[in-house]
Specification:
GO terms for molecular function: ATP binding; protein histidine kinase activity. Its EC number is 2.7.13.3. It is an enzyme of class 2 (transferase). It comes from Rufibacter quisquiliarum. This protein is α+β, with helices and mostly antiparallel strands and 395 residues long. The protein folds into three domains: 129 residues, no CATH class; 80 residues; 150 residues, Heat Shock Protein 90 (2-Layer Sandwich), CATH 3.30.565.10. Helix content is 55%, strand content 17%. The strands form three sheets. The chain has a five-stranded mixed β-sheet with strand order 6-8-9-11-10. Strands 2-1-4-3 form a four-stranded antiparallel β-sheet. Strands 5-7 form a two-stranded antiparallel sheet. A hairpin with a 4-residue loop joins strand 8 and strand 9. Helix 1 packs antiparallel against helix 2 and helix 1 runs antiparallel to helix 4. The longest helix is centred in the middle third of the chain and has 67 residues. The structure holds adenosine-5'-triphosphate (ATP) and magnesium ion.
Length: 395
């Protein structure tokens, strides 16, 4: 009834949002990298100039007028790029723009500077300053703090934004789920409540008729009794889903047998329903019987629909997983579910039937996962061959 298109629309919207986010993220990174490249180039120029200044100073006449100018305007102008000047053996002669604690011993200071030189070496090749009298100095340098920060900034920013979006998404979907829960529970409670009154009166009438000699040996009374029983079961289901259901250790094989009893009487005799078990018959599992029966009924009804009135359904209690959990596999020989739809079938509103509401499996999963702390999923399915649903329970 409800078009299943809403789900494909929703996933397309999600895809679109992800693409937009990726484009924005990518653009931020690319743009900052551009800035980094430009700044890096500028720092390179600054260092080149610094090296030229040093060379000039080394080669100039001592009393040259330009010396002061070069010292102040070129050498001192570098206030951001950390540099270390060394001799040919890499002994530190001078350094600049490095934060070296003042109150440390000469030895430690030297070690510290030597480590800086090693670090700088990995970033940039040193600049050689050759002097007239045939000796050389090396200028080691590394990226300024600003440049380093700028390099990592977009990643930090994007990580923060991603974390925030994730939190927002979870908060939002949590509140949406809570809202859905209230609708399910409220509607179920109200239905159970409204059914209650006429049902108890019907029951009284049935007891009255059964006892009345006028209707002795009337098959109608028996039929009426069955319908009243069925109504009672339905009311119990709604009332259980509208409250915190009580789970009890129940002989699981018998519960399964009982659950399909109702269906067996209603499907054509071309559909065979078999129950098998790997467990001893008295094995128990923690279930709420009215809700659990509802689940089995929903899954089996779907199986009957999928087989179009001819085939076999096998319900098998098996051991599953490492913990030897108890699982119920429900296998049919119906039309199968394509791989891409095997998760989607559990969404409320997803149906391929003319008269379906798409609620059967949504409800079944809800009952198993929320009320029984178990799991329900499509174990395997092949189009044209059949489907197996697996239901895992706590023991
Ligand atoms: N055993 C199965 N084999 C093949 N397809 C299945 C099977 N079980 C479910 N489906 C598919 O999953 C869809 C959703 O099932 P679900 O029980 O949630 O809703 P529905 O049966 O369509 O409607 P209703 O609310 O009446 O149960 C079905 O319409 C069908 O396409
Ligand atoms: Mg169904």
């Amino acid at each position: 009834m409800i078009p299943t298109k809403i789900y494909s629309k929703k996933s397309r919207l999600k895809l679109l949002i992800i693409i937009v986010a990726l484009v924005i993220g990518g653009a931020t990174v690319v743009y900052t990298n551009l800035l980094v490249a430009k700044l890096s180039e500028r720092e390179q120029q600054l260092i080149d100039l610094y090296a030229k200044g040093l060379r000039y100073m080394g080669n100039a006449e001592i009393d040259s007028d330009n010396l002061v100018f070069v010292q102040e305007e070129i050498i001192d102008a570098n206030r951001s790029v950390p540099v270390i000047l060394t001799d040919e053996q890499e002994n530190v002669l001078a350094y600049k723009n490095l934060t070296i604690p003042e109150k440390i011993s000469e030895k430690r200071k030297k070690a510290l500077l030597q480590r800086e030189v090693a670090k700088m070496k990995t970033q940039h090749k040193p600049i050689v300053v050759a002097y007239q009298d045939d000796f050389r100095n090396y200028i080691f340098y590394k990226d300024s703090e600003l440049l380093t920060q700028l390099r990592y900034y977009p990643y930090v920013q994007l990580t923060v934004i991603a974390c925030l979006s994730l939190i927002a998404y979870y908060a939002f979907s949590y509140s949406r789920k809570a809202e859905q829960n209230r609708v399910w529970v409220g509607l179920a409670k109200e239905t159970a409540h409204q059914l209650g009154t006429p049902l108890s009166s019907l029951m009284a009438w049935y007891e009255y008729l059964k006892a009345s000699p006028r209707f002795e040996n009337e098959p109608i009374v028996e039929e009426l009794g069955k319908d009243v029983k069925r109504l009672e079961i339905i009311t119990e289901r709604f009332s259980n889903i509208g409250s915190v259901p009580v789970l009890k250790d129940e002989p699981i094989l018998r519960v399964v047998e009982n659950a399909i009893g109702y269906l067996r009487n209603r499907v054509s005799n071309k559909v065979s329903i078999v129950v098998e078990s790997d467990f001893p018959p008295e094995t128990t599992a923690k279930v709420n019987v009215p809700l659990f029966e509802w689940v089995i009924e929903n899954i089996c009804k779907n199986a009957v629909d999928a087989m179009e009135g001819k085939g076999s359904i096998t319900l098998r209690l098996v051991r599953a997983g490492a913990k030897d959990a108890l699982a119920l596999d429900i296998q049919d020989t119906g039309k199968g579910i394509p791989k891409t739809k095997q998760e989607e079938v559990f969404l409320p509103g997803y149906t391929t039937k003319k008269r379906g509401w798409g609620l059967g499996l949504a409800l079944a999963r809800r009952i198993i996962e929320n009320y029984h702390q178990g799991r329900l999923f499509v174990k395997s399915s092949e189009v044209g061959k059949g489907t197996t649903f697996r239901l895992i329970l706590n023991r």
